[in-house]
Fold this sequence. Notes:
By secondary structure, the protein is an alpha+beta fold. The chain has eleven helices and 20 strands. A hairpin with a 2-residue loop joins strand 13 and strand 14.
Amino acid sequence: MAYGTSLHAVYNHYLTTYAPKSTTQYDTHKKSELRNIYHSIVKLNKESPLYLLDSSNESRAFAIGLKENARALRNTIASLGGLDETKMLGKKAAYSSNPNIATASYIGESNISGTSPSFNIEVTALASSQLNLGMFLPAEEKTDLAPGAYSFNININDLNYEFQYNIRGGESNRDLQERLARLISNAEIGVNADVFEDDKGRSSLRLTSTSSGLSGDKDYIFHISDETTSKLSGTVDYLGLNFMSRQPSNAHFLLDGEPRTASSNHFTIDKIFDITLNGISSAEGETAEIGLKTDLDSLTENVNNLVYGYNSFVKAAAEYLDSHPRSGKLINEMSHISRHYQADLEEAGFSFEKNGQLSIDCDAFKHSILNDENKTRFSTIRDFTNSILRKTNQVSLNPMEYVDKRLVAYKNPGHNFANPYMTSNYSGMLFNGYC
């Protein structure tokens, strides 16, 4: 039980310190993919020499950050049509005739039979979150609550969370509010808290739900009380935490004239479009038309996203050049990949920057694709994308390749065996940084 608790703590430390990015659908894998990764690790460990690694905090952050950035670039490529070479960059792109009302992205299948789907949406009300605004108290004055152990409960999603804290003698109202704001926000239960101050030197504890809308017969998302708490009560009344200044509400909109509601401003329609509501229609009948872009416009958008992901990866690696010179090795490898396709890419509207990044002229790109009768340029762009994908897989598999290290010994040729050396160095850094 202690081991499981420790491992859970280390994993949380990794997520909050090094990998704040959220996971996506592209982070899931089939058994066959995991099996291939395992065999690749075994082969890597079998052939790897013995190194003495730099175990500093900076090197640890560099290796983990490098792996996460490689994962992000891989996911960018996957989101543009998939990892299958025949489907790369084939994702359809959606358009909105009025982004002020709604924007959309296409999440359906690549192959569409029949008429291209489209619809009109008119927004009459946006979904809102719950906001509780506490009483405004003189910020610098001493709190009226007596020193002692206090607690209060927050009920959200049919779960009850108790928050316990101590009030120290001489503590000011603002000190108390800031401490409770950190306590609530860091708990990550679906409620964020901060301290709001007016122009009269008074401060208030403000609580906002991370979700919006209403479900069932409830007229709230979260509820605060200290009537049945285990410690001293009085916090809720003193700070006014149970005052709901904004009630949560659902989004209301018309989809091709038919009334619809949603608990969030972000939702999907028929598993085809991912919709984000951005504003209310300024006049009755004002709509946003949602549909699919042409194949050429979709390809142009996909290539733009590829260039952005590529540049973000190169830029992230370049940030470590001063502290980790070996990151230059990765930048040179990425540059070598792009230079291999340089002539064809430049004919397709790409430009090569001195810092190793790329840029693209969308008009020149569209013109080159329209005049590419044999589709050789598009084939080159797919080959370029596939080469980048292979490199991100290599970096994800062994980010230690780019960490400063000193060669100690080669393995005995012909008599080497698989061992967990390389992978244990990477995973061990997570434990060393926490313990």
